[in-house]
């Protein structure tokens, strides 16, 4: 800061004399937190010029310069700042203390069990204020209470009401002054007492009556049955309904909700409008015969329309397994797909809501992963509203020192500067006020926001548990504590808003409605037809016909397009060479490699107007330097994507290098693919074994989502796989795990070995009217293998080959052994056989291991009915790879009376050895054994 300018500013008339010390303290408060001073003072301090010697001047340096000049001015004036000035600053510090730490004294726990530490900052004495000051008038600074000055006692009461009542607000960790000021205006403006009219209050009571009534009804009708009751957290129902209504008013068209078990049945019936009779049938064990294996009722999803003042809003509750928080990124992916479909890049039309347990949000790492994604290009959804049903106990773990290492379960949200609003669930008006505040913040700033609904759990983890065995003090209180409906009904009766008789009658009316079994949500509307139509993909078999033809002219035109880039876009020399080679491939002057064929497949789909989404940690370049779909200018770091510059009316391709996550990213892409069947959605692992980090998503969603929930999904996983001597961590994509989970035609598992095959496989995945996952073991060394090439003619008017017959000109009658294999080992076998000039062993490639191509293999086997010696050869250890999971298919494929033996690595606990020399020995041995006939 320039000293001359500072001195001139200090010497201005209204800052002269004894006010200097006061101004210095004001400036100190401003530097700590710009929102601590009024708008007028903040604008004045903001106008001070920055230090020209350093872009980021240290605050300590600025303070010291200000302090020195202020003291000099004070000496010149020969005065002292008044006691009143000092007291004024102390009042401003008190206000700021409440903003920072008032939540620690808030009345949040309905049971009164929370024992928070005393916060000295909130006492008058801490700030050198006494009883003698209580009736003195002070300027309130930026405190948004509608008055510029107030008596200290009124200021103190207002602060208690705002920050230490049923709402505990944490927002001072936010860096943005604008966001903090916005929250302060909204919170402080109502002085802790939000106003609701009679209609709103009676609506809240009716919603609490419904929440309580359903649980009591289920408890009496199905005693002892698991329902993961909402009791204690009943305010979740008015919270959600208020959230949906207000979002509709503000233009939201679709809401996607993710939640675990607690309160799910209540939300289904009392918010989404599921028929009670349908729920009762599920309790009774009834189900439709065509619903696959099904799932327990508190995992099931639901869709409906909900009437709001701004129009009907479509609601979708995501299906969710017992892995609790894993549904968070699934919801975000579904929301992003809907945003893209509605051309809503900011998230104005689609709202994600996730509902958490207090133990789960603090304990499960997927929450951090999802928060981390929230502002990135590939995964942002315009902010989400996150609700914690905080019943202060996780199964049987309730002590904070056992459940987490932070004061609040919501502290994880501070990593993305999300405001956190703790609220006492027994005060439904405070809950609804906070809900409206949270939604408005999200819609204004497009940032995550958290509502911590502090409540309790009336029963055990499920209704069969005995909670007092592990939480005796808590449940002694719970047994005596009235339900939220009773508390609020009494409050409204005292205020002459609702009579006791009316409140009792509503209880009976709701029970009568449940007896009828029809929808009990007044806002429920018949679901209208939405913009996505899944009907073309329902009920189709794998072998359904599709148009796979593409002409030579189209291939050549698109091939040249994907090899072009602006002359001014300077490429890295190695990338430039790749593109020079691609132009030769496009013109038919050179056989095509993997990268070219893959990119050309995308181009043919984009040419048809199809949207493509590809994410992964290195997907733009490709981990193994083969894709180069995103070209980086070496001069200015700008990017160019040939695939997005094919023609004017093409489809859009999105290729993002993702955050370093597997679980959250794959779950996000799964969510996207379940909401958008018309897009080709792909995730590429950096190395195939990284899919281990997403195993929950693979097991619970991808492999069984259709069987359990009827959810179709066309997500493609690209998993680099191949034994190259790179050690145990980067060899295997764990093919055996995917094959072990293969059943009911739930997905396809492919191991393509040529560029033409990957071309056809990608196109088939999107063009065939089937939406099931595709798991691909993609290559590493094959990307540039001299034999793994294809000609342009291999792409014309043909499709993917599930199995490939012998390609050399062998006389089938001379063949004594047939080797079946998949993947890279084929080329090792082929090269060794050619080296030996051996003509008595035929090699057949199985390119799709599941569903096993029995008909295609049978057709190939017609030439080898005389052969009795069949071998399955694989690179993976015997207990891994395809051998154990698929050998029943191999046995069924070979002629009757023939023998099938294994040739490959011995069983191993690790996927591969870590020594290149040992790897080479093993590889040579398995090839020799596969080809040598004794």
Set down the secondary structure blueprint.
Blueprint: H1 3-10, H2 20-32, H3 39-46, H4 59-77, H5 83-101, E1 137-139, E2 149-151, H6 152-163, E3 167-170, H7 177-189, H8 198-221, H9 236-249, E4 254-259, H10 264-270, H11 276-283, E5 302-308, E6 311-317, H12 327-341, E7 350-357, H13 358-363, H14 365-373, E8 385-390, H15 400-403, E9 420-424, H16 428-445, E10 449-454, H17 472-480, H18 484-494, H19 500-516, E11 524-525, H20 552-561, H21 573-586, H22 594-606, E12 611-616, E13 631-632, E14 639-640, E15 653-657, H23 663-675, E16 679-684, H24 695-702, H25 705-709, E17 716-720, H26 735-740, E18 748-750, H27 755-767, E19 774-778, E20 803-804, E21 817-821, H28 825-836, E22 841-846, E23 848-850, H29 854-861, E24 869-877, H30 883-893, E25 899-905, H31 916-931
Parallel strand pairs: 4-6, 4-7, 7-8, 8-10, 9-10, 12-15, 12-16, 16-17, 17-19, 18-19, 21-22, 21-24, 24-25
Antiparallel strand pairs: 1-2, 3-9, 5-6, 5-11, 13-14, 18-23, 20-22
Helix pairs in contact: 1-4, 2-4, 2-5, 5-6, 8-10, 8-18, 8-19, 9-16, 12-23, 20-21, 20-22, 22-27, 23-24, 28-31
Quick rundown:
This protein is an alpha/beta fold.
Explain what this protein looks like in three dimensions:
Keywords: Oxidoreductase, Thiamine pyrophosphate. One of its GO terms (cellular component) is cytosol. One of its GO terms (biological process) is tricarboxylic acid cycle. InterPro entries: 2-oxogl_dehyd_N, 2oxoglutarate_DH_E1, DH_E1, KGD_C_sf, ODO-1/KGD_C, THDP-binding, Transketolase-like_Pyr-bd. It is a single chain. The protein has 934 residues and is an alpha/beta fold. The chain folds into 4 domains: 1-105, no CATH class; 198-525, Thiamin diphosphate (ThDP)-binding fold, Pyr/PP domains (Rossmann fold), CATH 3.40.50; 552-795, Rossmann fold (3-Layer(aba) Sandwich), CATH 3.40.50; 803-931, Rossmann fold. Helix 28 links the parallel strand 21 (817-821) and strand 22 (841-846).
């Amino acid at each position: 800061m320039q000293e001359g300018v500072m001195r001139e500013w200090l010497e201005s008339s209204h800052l002269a004399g004894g006010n200097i010390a006061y101004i210095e303290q004001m400036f100190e408060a401003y530097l700590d937190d710009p929102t601590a001073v009024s708008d007028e003072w903040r604008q004045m301090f903001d106008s001070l010029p920055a230090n020209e010697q350093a872009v980021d001047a240290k605050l300590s340096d600025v303070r010291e310069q200000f302090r020195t000049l202020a003291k000099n001015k004070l000496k010149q004036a020969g005065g002292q700042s008044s006691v009143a000035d000092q007291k004024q600053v102390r009042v401003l510090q008190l206000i700021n203390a409440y903003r920072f730490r008032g939540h620690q004294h808030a009345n949040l726990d309905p049971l009164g069990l929370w024992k928070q530490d005393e916060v000295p900052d909130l006492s008058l004495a801490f700030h050198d204020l006494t009883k003698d000051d209580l009736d003195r008038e002070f300027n309130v600074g930026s405190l948004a209470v509608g008055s510029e000055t107030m008596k200290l006692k009124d200021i103190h009461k207002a602060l208690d009401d705002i920050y230490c009542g049923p709402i505990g607000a944490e927002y001072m960790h936010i860096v943005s002054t604008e966001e903090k000021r916005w929250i302060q205006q909204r919170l402080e403006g109502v002085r802790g007492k939000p106003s609701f009219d009679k209609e709103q209050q009676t609506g809240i009571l009716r919603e609490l009556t419904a929440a309580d009534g359903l649980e009591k009804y289920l408890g009496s009708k199905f005693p002892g049955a698991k329902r993961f009751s909402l009791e204690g957290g009943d305010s979740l129902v008015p919270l959600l309904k208020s959230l949906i209504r207000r979002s509709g008013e503000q233009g939201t068209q679709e809401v996607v909700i993710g939640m675990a078990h607690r309160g799910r049945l209540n939300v289904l019936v009392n918010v989404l409008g599921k028929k009670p009779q349908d729920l009762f049938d599920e309790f009774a064990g009834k189900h439709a015969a065509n619903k696959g294996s099904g799932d327990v009722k508190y995992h099931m999803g639901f869709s409906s329309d909900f009437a709001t003042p701004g129009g009907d809003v479509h609601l979708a509750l995501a299906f969710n397994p017992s892995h609790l928080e894993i549904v968070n990124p699934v919801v975000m992916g579904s929301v992003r797909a809907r945003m893209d479909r509605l051309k809503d890049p900011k998230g104005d039309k689609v709202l994600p809501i996730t509902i958490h347990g207090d133990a789960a949000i603090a304990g499960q790492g997927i929450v951090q992963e999802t928060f981390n994604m929230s502002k990135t290009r590939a995964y942002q959804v315009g902010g989400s509203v996150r609700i914690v049903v905080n019943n202060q106990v996780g199964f049987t773990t309730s002590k904070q020192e056992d459940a987490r290492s932070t004061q609040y379960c919501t502290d994880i949200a501070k990593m993305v500067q999300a405001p956190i609003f703790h609220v006492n669930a027994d005060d439904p008006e405070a809950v609804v006020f906070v809900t409206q505040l949270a939604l408005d913040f999200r819609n204004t700033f497009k940032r995550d926001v958290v509502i911590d609904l502090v409540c309790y759990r009336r029963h055990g983890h499920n209704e069969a548990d005995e909670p007092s065995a592990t939480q005796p003090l808590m449940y002694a209180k719970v047994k005596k504590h009235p339900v939220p409906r009773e508390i609020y009904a009494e409050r409204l009766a005292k205020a002459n808003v609702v009579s006791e008789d009316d409140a009792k009658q509503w209880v009976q009316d709701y029970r009568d409605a449940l007896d009828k079994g029809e929808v009990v949500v007044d806002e429920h509307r018949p679901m209208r037809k939405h913009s996505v139509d899944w009907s073309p993909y329902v009920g189709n078999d794998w072998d359904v016909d599709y148009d796979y033809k593409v002409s030579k002219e189209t291939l050549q035109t698109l091939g040249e397009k994907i090899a072009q880039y602006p002359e001014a876009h300077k490429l890295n020399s190695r990338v430039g060479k790749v593109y020079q080679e691609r132009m030769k491939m496009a013109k038919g002057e050179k056989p095509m490699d993997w990268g070219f064929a893959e990119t050309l497949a995308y181009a043919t789909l984009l040419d048809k107007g199809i949207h493509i989404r590809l994410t992964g940690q290195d997907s733009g370049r490709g981990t193994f330097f083969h894709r180069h779909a995103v070209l980086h200018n070496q001069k200015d770091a700008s990017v160019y994507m040939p695939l997005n510059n094919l023609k004017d009316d093409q489809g859009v391709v999105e290729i993002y290098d993702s955050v370093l996550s597997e679980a959250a990213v794959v779950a996000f892409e799964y969510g996207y693919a379940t909401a958008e069947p018309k897009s080709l959605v792909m995730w590429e692992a950096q190395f195939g074994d990284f899919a281990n980090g997403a195993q929950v998503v693979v097991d619970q969603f991808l492999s069984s989502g259709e069987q359990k929930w009827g959810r179709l999904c066309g997500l493609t996983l690209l998993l680099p796989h191949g034994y190259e001597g790179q050690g145990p961590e980067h060899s295997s994509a764990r093919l055996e795990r995917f094959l072990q989970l293969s059943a009911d035609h739930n997905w396809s598992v492919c191991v393509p070995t040529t560029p033409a095959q990957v071309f056809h496989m990608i196109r088939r995945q999107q063009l065939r009217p089937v939406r099931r996952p595709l798991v691909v073991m993609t290559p590493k060394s094959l990307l540039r293998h001299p034999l793994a090439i294809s000609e342009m003619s291999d792409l014309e008017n043909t499709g993917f080959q599930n199995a490939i017959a012998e390609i050399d000109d062998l006389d089938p009658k001379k063949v004594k052994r047939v080797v079946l294999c998949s993947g890279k080992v084929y080329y090792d076998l082929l090269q060794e056989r050619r080296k030996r000039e051996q003509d008595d062993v035929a090699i057949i490639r199985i390119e799709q291991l599941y569903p096993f191509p029995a008909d295609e293999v049978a057709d190939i086997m017609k030439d080898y009915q005389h052969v009795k010696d069949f071998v399955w050869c694989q690179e993976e250890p015997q207990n891994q790879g395809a051998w154990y999971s698929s050998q029943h298919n191999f046995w069924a494929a070979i002629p009757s009376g023939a023998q099938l033996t294994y040739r490959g690595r011995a069983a191993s606990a690790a996927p591969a050895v870590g020594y290149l020399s040992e790897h080479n020995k093993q590889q040579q041995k398995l090839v020799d054994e596969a080809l040598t006939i004794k």
